[in-house]
Amino acid sequence: MTQAYDYLAEWFEFLNDDCDYPTWSQYFIDGLRRRGAGPKGFELGCGSGAFCRALARAGFQMTGGDISRPMLTKAVRLAQEEGLAIPFVLADARCLKTPERYDFILSANDCINYLPQERLPSAFRRIAACLKREGIFWFDISSEYKLTQKVANNMFGDDRDDVTYLEFNRREEDRVETDVTLFVREGELFRRYDETHVRFLHTEKDVLAALHSAGFDAEVEGHLGGTALQSDRLNFICRKVSS
């Protein structure tokens, strides 16, 4: 059965070159330093490793984890091309367990949207167990405003020389389901690949309640530190307060 990112993994960073990874990464780097984060970090849902690589270049000791094997394969290759020794491991927020505790865990770019609301408290408790005392858990979600007002029931596309990307989004009760189609050049022909992504709707109130139940204090801000009101992306910057 085809899973999300089975085919998109190879093209994900290339097709997202307009999201300004350098600025986005620096936002995390500056925020972690300002909050006194220790050097050892784990990125949950690291994808092909863009943030892991940026944080490693900034001096953090990063490990990347993702549920997608194709994403991890791409992450290893890109890190090696930059001469970065970053471990990448198979990891699932629903059953996360790490052999050591980290100073911070980062989960960026919608990863938590892939968990339904009822799974958030248990996932957050597992994440807390992987953090040192007073460790930082920093994640973002695509806001309910973005998913319902901008994404749902819309189509988006991107046409490049070697790949064409199409997505078709439909609103269901508690989620937005996205059918992705890629046309990838192979010689003189293009081969078609299809996969489906499901992102769940989360309100700020419900996420905060789940965080508090897992032993976190949290602050919320919009994308790159902007206001959270009607932001496309909400950042939850959390501190573990229970042992």
Topology:
Layout: H1 12-15, H2 21-34, E1 40-44, H3 50-57, E2 61-66, H4 69-81, E3 88-90, E4 102-107, H5 120-129, E5 131-142, H6 144-151, E6 155-159, E7 163-171, E8 175-186, E9 189-200, H7 204-213, E10 216-222, E11 233-240
Parallel strand pairs: 1-2, 1-4, 2-3, 4-5
Antiparallel strand pairs: 5-11, 6-7, 7-8, 8-9, 10-11
Helix pairs in contact: 2-3, 5-7
Describe the structure.
The structure is a single chain. The chain is an alpha/beta fold and 243 residues long. It folds into two domains: 8-145 and 203-240, Rossmann fold; 147-199, N-terminal domain of TfIIb (Single Sheet). It has helices spanning 12-15, 21-34, 50-57, 69-81, 120-129, 144-151, 204-213; strands spanning 40-44, 61-66, 88-90, 102-107, 131-142, 155-159, 163-171, 175-186, 189-200, 216-222, 233-240. Strands 3-2-1-4-5-11-10 form a seven-stranded mixed β-sheet, sandwiched between helices. Strands 6-7-8-9 form a four-stranded antiparallel β-sheet. Strand 8 and strand 9 (189-200) form a beta hairpin. Helix 2 crosses helix 3 and helix 5 crosses helix 7. The longest helix is centred in the first third of the chain and has 14 residues, at 21-34. The chain is globular and about 60 Å long.
